[in-house]
Design a protein that fits this description.
CATH superfamily of the largest domain: Zn peptidases
Number of helices: 7
Oligomer: single chain
Strand content: 25-35%
Radius of gyration: 20 Å
Structural class: alpha+beta
Number of strands: 18
CATH topology of the largest domain: Aminopeptidase
Helix content: 25-40%
Shape: globular
Number of domains: 2
Distance between the termini: 32 Å
Largest sheet: 12 strands, mixed
Amino acid sequence: MLDHEIHIEVVNRLPHLLRTLTEVPGISGMEDGIARTLSKLLGAYADAVEIDSLANVIARFGDGSYPRVAVLAHSDTVGMLVKRVQGQMLGMVPVGGVNLKALPGAAVRVGDLPGVVTVRSQHQAQPGDMAVKDADDIAIDIGPGQEVAVATPITYAPQSQVMGHHFAAPYLDDRAGCAALVELARLLPAAHPGTVYLVGTAQEETTCLGAYHALHAIQPQAAYFVDGTVSYDTPETHSRGMVALGQGPVLATFLYTSGSKGWHVHPKLDAHLRQIAAEFEIPIQNDAVHGLISDSRMAGWLGIPSAVIGLPMRGKHSPLEVMSLDDAAQAVGLLLEALLRPLPDLARG
């Protein structure tokens, strides 16, 4: 476990860092702004940092010698694009898995303009008003006299709240993972085995091609992915699983949505992380998730052993997601210890 004082330091640093990261727009495929921000933050500690052709941020710690280990978190977010313009009312198309049910009444940004997702006044409410079926049920009000082009990006308006050791903001999936990369960069000592790459990946919410491109270029012996995952600690979800906020990061065993969109943890890398967690008394949770996928599937396509360290969140992909600052700090501690020791034998069979 991180030294208690360092753990508290990380917890105390995270709200400001998370605000900085979540306030920068970065819809999947449009990550240039967040790439610049993340490059500056990681570049303060790295031996080298670059932004590649897909807007991946690749920070290198070490001289490139083996073994090479990568820690990846995606910098892109879900969002929307303007689909049609009807006066001051806009229609939209979602980019990634936008939580449509959570949109009515939400504050948004249309490019640099403020906007509000419309919702019928309660005084005029009709049965089924809140039953959003698809994107065509969503309209966005930008007020009179504004000019907006089709395909302008639409993002959730910046906002945040600290609730004890919980933190709420849009886009914690996966700017919280990016914050973990920054804290790892700050805490990683000069003496560590081989070379460490900390990577902010592009396009996870749509294609996962950023991770594929970065991993293909780096060719690491192992890859750790830090990503938001689901929790089951609200009244409507408690029967679906065991993960809760504040009980530690999640070591995922299996992720799957459909078809080829699946991933399995490398068993020896999983055992390696669990041994470290037990040795340093880092609390961990376990899950196998249907309905969730991550950049880790690209590691599978490339034959790179991988593990996912999940940060439990409530309300994923909604205008306000909620996470535990302690879970994120413990994930930093687990990854730091993993990076400071040699990889295990990862041979299969």
